[in-house]
What does this fold into?
Amino acid sequence: MTPRVHLYSRPGCHLCDDARALVAATCGTKVAWEEIDISADASLTSRYGEQIPVVTVDDAVVGFWRIDPDRLKAALKAKRRR
It folds into this structure.
């Protein structure tokens, strides 16, 4: 099973820029990921607005604000074992 990674962000967020680079580097070409702009969706803004960036793997939050690359790698590895 391939993990689904989502980066919840909004334009103009410098932490989101950092998270985007980290997720892209960590996922590489082997794990698909998608960036979702929360400012385009009121429910996502309500849910994640104070925590962005937020990274999820299969809908489980792996981190927010400053994303820990080791925690993301561990989450991806754990999902592959299932």
User: Anything to note?
Assistant: The mean pLDDT is 91. The two ends are 8 Å apart (CA to CA).
